[in-house]
Amino acid sequence: MTMNPYLSQLSKIGSASSRKIVGLMSGTSLDGLDIALCEFSGYGLETQVKLLNFRTISYSSELKSALKLISSKPRVDLEQVTVLNAYLGNIYGEMVLACLGDWNVEVTDVDLIASHGQTIYHAPKHQHGLEFYPNATFQIGDGDHVAVKTGIITLSDFRQKHVAAGGEGAPLSIYGDYLLFSSDTEHRVLLNIGGISNFTYLPATGSGLAVMSTDVGPGNTLMDQFVQREYPGLGYDDGGSIAAAGEINESLLNLLLDDAFFKRSFPKTTGPEVFSLSYLDNVLGKAGLIELTNADVLATLSAFTVAGIELGLSACIPDNTDFSLYISGGGMHNTFLRQQLEAKLGLSIKSTALLDIDPDAKEAVLFAVLANECISGAALQYPTTSGLLPVAMGKISLPR
Ligand SMILES: Nc1ncnc2c1ncn2[C@@H]1O[C@H](COP(=O)(O)OP(=O)(O)OP(=O)(O)O)[C@@H](O)[C@H]1O
Ligand SMILES: CC(=O)N[C@H]1[C@@H]2OC[C@@H](O2)[C@@H](O)[C@@H]1O[C@H](C)C(=O)O
């Protein structure tokens, strides 16, 4: 009997002692594509990963604008969604080929691509509230286009299996965090501040405490959107320097925190569908605070991000637990935000670089971990206390 040669290749990749996987991540900030070339050996808790190369390729301003028009909005132009789904898959493929060329890596040396895609709408049931509909989430940048463009077997659309198995489709970082960063001796928190903030809590293995992960609220999304509107040409508040010149307005902060999301039990997920400029404008209008300076608004938005993180950590981690906090995501470059966070939590924040993963590359690496798990077949072996749904995630696209 004959077999599609890509299927036998896939079987060889899964059983090989090591494999090279390119992880691709583009998050809710819509800033560009993170490309991480990783070398894996093993799977499950034996996973070893080495980050061989990493680059972020910014999206063009035209692409950013086109994506903004169809992202996180309940009503959009379906033709734009359709064309961007194909277009993104195609340019992700081109970007991978360009990186491999620059890194002098042969296409044939790469076993797999793990492509997250671009989330354009995230709709957990607690948010959409539609009685007869399930949790739902939608990523574009079709995997077949990536596979055909590069000639590399591609796994994509990781979140749908999680939703199908009863999850909200996020956060998925918990899988890679658990497999790569669990420690026998240290309680750890892996905090990612991207557009949205989320963390994984990894109690020391053997402590009997449960691993968990949740979104906690906005990361940079509200600050970014406000800066982009008020300072045309600026993408974000570099280092938090505008915010640092302002003062936190407690009334605004309390009103920002007065949303159903913060009253819901953990774990939970969210997105820019909730934390949008209209969320901010609505609160500013309600409080008669329109006259605040931009710096005051940004200082308060930064405090809002910090407050969401603090609420999440204090609700999910038993009192008086000593833990180390490792940060990743673009928000770690916001000095003002980091200082506020350290002061609020009363601890010194570490970088995931101390755990051998470049914090800017972490999410792209974690999607490569999901592909490694899917292909090597270990996905069903998570302990029931881990909070990990036992599913192999990622749809497989063959190049021909
Ligand atoms: N030097 C800096 N100063 C302040 N903020 C910065 C700096 N560099 C990056 N950022 C912030 O980080 C954001 C990008 O972060 P990142 O790429 O982690 O987000 P993302 O992956 O899109 O988000 P998510 O994980 O929520 O989907 C930028 O939009 C900006 O707000
Ligand atoms: C639906 C979606 O794309 N969610 C993202 C987003 O960005 C951060 C937070 O919200 C997190 O839940 C998730 O991404 C990371 C990578 C995750 O799944 O862990």
UniProtKB/TrEMBL annotation:
Binding-site list for ATP: 27-34
Enzyme class: transferase
Any GO BP: peptidoglycan turnover
Catalyzed reaction equations: 1,6-anhydro-N-acetyl-beta-muramate + ATP + H2O = N-acetyl-D-muramate 6-phosphate + ADP + H(+)
Statement: the UniProt record of this protein carries the keyword ATP-binding: yes
Transmembrane spans: none
Keyword Zinc-finger: no
CDD domains: ASKHA_NBD_ANMK
One of the record's GO molecular function terms: ATP binding
EC numbers, comma separated: 2.7.1.170
Pathway in which the depicted protein is active: Cell wall biogenesis; peptidoglycan recycling; Amino-sugar metabolism; 1,6-anhydro-N-acetylmuramate degradation
Keywords: ATP-binding, Carbohydrate metabolism, Kinase, Nucleotide-binding, Transferase
Membership in a protein family: Belongs to the anhydro-N-acetylmuramic acid kinase family.
HAMAP family: AnhMurNAc_kinase (MF_01270)
Function according to Swiss-Prot or TrEMBL: Catalyzes the specific phosphorylation of 1,6-anhydro-N-acetylmuramic acid (anhMurNAc) with the simultaneous cleavage of the 1,6-anhydro ring, generating MurNAc-6-P. Is required for the utilization of anhMurNAc either imported from the medium or derived from its own cell wall murein, and thus plays a role in cell wall recycling.
The protein, known as: Anhydro-N-acetylmuramic acid kinase
Gene that this sequence comes from: anmK
